[in-house]
């Protein structure tokens, strides 16, 4: 018998603490436990602490997800020498306070999206991130869909010029979990907690994803938002006001002039997590739907007409992004793998002292688009320029 | 040997003349030749005359498509006693003049879409149609997509309440035949001939189709139009100005409050005739794509969660609209059948002296939406109410 | 006013008579009426006579479908000078008698599939066809699926070497119209009329289609047949014996060594007319399903792995087989067009005195495969060589 | 700061050792690390030892995958008190020896499929498993595809009678990694190591999956196997003989009389891991393709014809099998989750002292089908009964 170890990273490790332990906490934990088993990251994570307000529930979550200790005040993490990185999985109203404090305390930060609930908060966070970076402290906003292999491949194909100049972007994020008017109230339906509704929760993802894939920022939008069910059953039997949008639709333009339509809703009955886009360029097109997340559809306009067609690329080949670390062709990945990929990239960036992406500046860029949509919706769909300075 | 005849309609016939013999003329001709072979229409068409400006080319077309005579001036048709109905297949700039004259001459009219190039023309046509109707003279605008069996079935399911209250409409009409910047100039790219570009040519279809399927009018829109290729090669070697939109995107609202997004473009590389929509209601959803025109996708929200899913209805069963006249299940129909169905309905309406649909008033309703989109696009996407009075 | 004509073929015509006026009669009639409107055929059909046993019903059918006269005995057609071609749309037990007599009388013959009910009949027909051909009298067996543009394109791609050496063929023809055990008895379930059940009715199509697309004959098979519902309600209230197979499954080999699986059934609940195949070669693959008949799926194995994928070719481009005669891209064709294409090819072959395909020898080749499957099924799935001599 | 632990199972644990650390070892390790994080299993795994012949490589694998120690002889595991369960991830020629020894030493066993390379070995293993079970020692064969949620749901729907009596089974397992004739030799192509080729490697999965979903055994088969590329490049530059089948196709019958076709190949160019089946019953149908593993297609024959259609159930709802442990609807699972589910079920069975499934007897049942296919192929596709006694 020979002793083994559970740490393959040859000595270099990084102490990780997480704040929040709901849905996002569960999936981030799985990624932290898994990343160094499949990726050759320069730093292996030590899952040292989980922070949450309720001690009992936080302790239970720590046990379940594999965190070595718990804190009931996230501020305690700032003082701990064994914490090198703070992973923020709380609602958006706390992101700015925790994120800025963590960066100032010299902790790397991974922050769930949307970066913040307001442009002002996001600006302060981006500023703090830039300052921290000068000191070798890194930060990333968790737009995990960038790390779907099919999306990364889409970005690569656009960057290689395979679709030419982008002309059209159409992007939808369709869910249906609020279709039932009697579904209960949650913090996601309160403006003070969530900032906005479908717009910030899922619209943020398609704004980031299409800016990422095209490599271009949105420069203007015209939007419309709507709340279908204005009151919902609360925890105490009474009904509470829904103070966010149930859906947002908007038209837009990208920097190169490409014309865009966007839609985010949780009322598309039958669509469970249909994060979709199609991009048409002068040489080709790309289409994606997260409900079939291992597929990317590519139309190569250089192909002769008689044999041209949208092809379904099953994005599970060794030379597809992230895939070599996993299974043979056709043995698909799932939702959680996007987080493992994200953390692999983050650890590589920290280990090599390079700036990870998407940065807080990228998060701010998305926030400004969301704010412009809300402003436009408030002013009769008036066209709003999006400030692209960072 | 017993004599047969080529007319099964037991004596009652209707004399039909057509103006124009390009793409629409070819497909209308096939429908006129075919309709009474499969549908028990009260009137069998006699294809008496084809009108076109160039005598030689019109004669060739008449021979090929089966019209018994030709005229080089459509006005001659008004005088002919053997002409009971005039089918207008010319560009939009001529619809008002021909259509109104025909109705005033007591001829029934089938008019290609869009009804007209301007709201003013469309209003005059609707007015003429209403007056004519009082005299038993009927008119229909040829929004043929209503007669795709899958679309008719969608309308039926909405009317039966199967999707509940409509919340979302998203409709795209995607083609790619202008993707090549060197594709030549055509009359469809000249505002004076075509009225508008993608908006009127194909956007008109999705406006009509979604109003038809939901049973509701659009009440407001905010739009954006764009011309990607402003000059194209003309017939004489020089380049000519494109004076219409290459694409139009717009958000909108239906009468019940449903939120909508629309897109019409001829630059969606790889999409050949993707006339698509998805409608989400409080009880179910429907989705359609003309590139698979025999299918309708239906999500029944009343189904228990464990077995719910979008189902692909292959719309070729005997109890599906129009299908019983044709082939056994699974033996699909094609594009041209939509025209045969349209004409079957028109002949039935005329034969029973009931008003056919879509009426010129329906065509006007579409025209007003298109005009509102153009006005909005001209004013920075400002929200425009759509006048729904007819 | 200038006189037009309904015959664009510049004088050359061919007198056509049809025997039988059920489903196949209806669709053949539509093709005969339509072919010269879209294809530049050297001979325009004159639909001179329809033969059927019941005078009243035959007369009605002639009126509806556009045949100029009727006969109650098909033999009368042999004597008529105005009949140049006889189109046989009757059940299989009559094909040999009518077909051979017609050829001997100097009439060209189009015969519905399967060519005959037995190999012996098929051999006599093939022999008669060969003799007739020497006298300039032509014949074709109506395997209409060869004329689906997607199938013709598949054949072309195989012939061009795009999929390399064929290794696998899997072909299914799935229908469900007998799933209900109480569906009534029909002639298609009687061995004396139909010859066999699913095997001959629909299995014949996939045998011909895969031999056509691969360009190779099947050389051996091992089969299994089954009758799920042995008795069905007859017209007189009693139950009658079903004397044919309800399904047939078989493995097989093509001449080059390719390995094949076949299945034909009318009990695949939910599949309406799913005539499907997939062919895998050393350089690429092809897949087709008639329920989406305008699509061909092609995998190009020469493509680099990162961008390879099955592509959906929407077979509606001008350079796709038969398509230029019809509509713009994306405006799909339907079931009946396959017959129009078949007849266009037949008329071209007759007009140019070249042998049309598929020939009666091709029909015989299919018949031998069907017989081998039946023989194998009768002998415990024993491997049966298929005689490929003609 | 409060101490957390990494073991949420409240004290009850089970010591696990694994033999082999290639592809299957990697995915089993991920499942062992993950299972108790998401499932409330009665026993939390302690990953105590990894066995492999090469010490350095085994040590590296143990570090990477999280095993606490290594052994270079699997027999050493039998002696260790900290080992309660042995997970066999080696090629099939070693399964019998290791499995039987482990069971006799009182260790629970999880054994990769196929259970063994011969029926004789499988019989001895099943016998050993039955004896061990009497002593509370449990065993399972790792047909992981049973734990795809969509497959489990399919089984549930069949058991509930939703598709009625099964009439047709068609199952394919299509891969393409051997399409290139120059792909190198591997142990999977040597009969002495792998037992058979595509038949045992992937054919075994579809035999088990369809027997599982239908709840019926296969009772007879007629098969055909083929080796397309008889020699491949070996490690030393010479070519070596391929001694297994490259593909197997067979027809078959299930106990109730249902008619089946099967195909397993690694030469289906473009199909990466297309483990597919369709089952047609008298009341409904089911279809599945692992390349879209989160979907199950269900046709409900009780639905009225006008709205019936194959529905795509996105199997990610809380009341779908295994799904509640994971993410919200539409956030799909991947290949590896099937192993986590398998191990969750195994731990539950051991913890409650009930027999896990699939048992070694189930593995033997599959082995007998595979042997019957090989025997049939060797005797001209002669029909072979399958011995269903266990």
Automatic annotation (TrEMBL), chains A, B, C, D:
Domain GFO/IDH/MocA-like oxidoreductase residues, every copy: 154-286
Cited PANTHER family: BCDNA.GH03377 (PTHR43818)
Q: Which UniProt keywords apply?
A: Oxidoreductase
- Alphabetized GO MF terms: nucleotide binding; oxidoreductase activity
What is the recorded name of this protein? Dehydrogenase
Q: Does the keyword Oxidoreductase apply?
A: yes
Pfam families hit by this protein: GFO_IDH_MocA, GFO_IDH_MocA_C3
Among Gene3D superfamilies, the record links this protein to: Dihydrodipicolinate Reductase, domain 2, NAD(P)-binding Rossmann-like Domain
Gfo/Idh/MocA-like oxidoreductase N-terminal domain residues: 14-134
């Amino acid at each position: 018998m020979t002793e083994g170890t559970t740490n393959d990273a040859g000595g270099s490790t990084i102490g990780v603490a997480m704040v929040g332990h709901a849905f996002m906490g569960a999936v981030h934990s799985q990624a932290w436990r898994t990343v160094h088993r499949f990726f050759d990251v320069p730093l292996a994570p030590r899952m040292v602490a989980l922070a949450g307000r309720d001690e009992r529930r936080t302790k239970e979550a720590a046990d379940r997800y594999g965190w070595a200790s718990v804190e009931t005040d996230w501020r305690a993490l700032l003082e701990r020498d064994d914490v090198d990185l703070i992973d923020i999985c709380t609602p958006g109203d706390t992101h700015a306070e925790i994120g800025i404090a963590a960066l100032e305390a010299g902790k790397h930060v991974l922050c769930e999206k949307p970066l913040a609930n307001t442009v002002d908060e996001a600006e302060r966070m981006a500023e703090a991130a830039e300052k921290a970076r000068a000191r070798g402290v890194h930060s990333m906003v968790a737009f995990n869909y960038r790390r779907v292999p099919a999306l990364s491949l889409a970005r690569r194909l656009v960057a290689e010029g395979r679709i030419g100049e982008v002309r059209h972007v159409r992007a939808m994020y369709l869910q249906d979990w609020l279709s039932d008017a009697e579904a209960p109230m949650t913090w996601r339906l309160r403006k003070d907690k969530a900032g906005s509704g479908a717009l910030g929760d899922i619209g943020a993802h398609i704004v980031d994803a299409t800016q990422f894939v095209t490599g271009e920022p949105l420069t203007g939008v015209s939007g419309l938002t709507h709340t279908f069910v204005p009151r919902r059953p609360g925890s105490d039997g009474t009904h509470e006001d829904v103070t966010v949008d149930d859906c947002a639709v908007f038209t837009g333009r990208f920097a190169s002039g490409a014309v865009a339509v966007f839609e985010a809703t949780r009322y598309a009955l039958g669509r469970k997590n249909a994060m979709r886009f199609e991009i048409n360029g002068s040489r080709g097109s790309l289409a994606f739907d997260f409900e079939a997340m291992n597929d990317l559809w590519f139309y190569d306009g250089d192909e002769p007409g008689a044999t041209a067609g949208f092809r379904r690329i099953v994005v599970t080949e060794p030379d597809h992004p992230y895939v070599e670390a996993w299974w043979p062709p056709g043995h698909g990945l799932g939702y959680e793998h996007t987080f493992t990929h994200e953390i692999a990239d983050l650890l590589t960036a920290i280990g090599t002292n390079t700036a990870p992406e998407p940065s807080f500046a990228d998060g701010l860029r998305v926030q400004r688009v969301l704010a412009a949509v809300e402003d436009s919706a408030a002013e009769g769909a008036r066209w709003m320029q999006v400030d692209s300075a960072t």
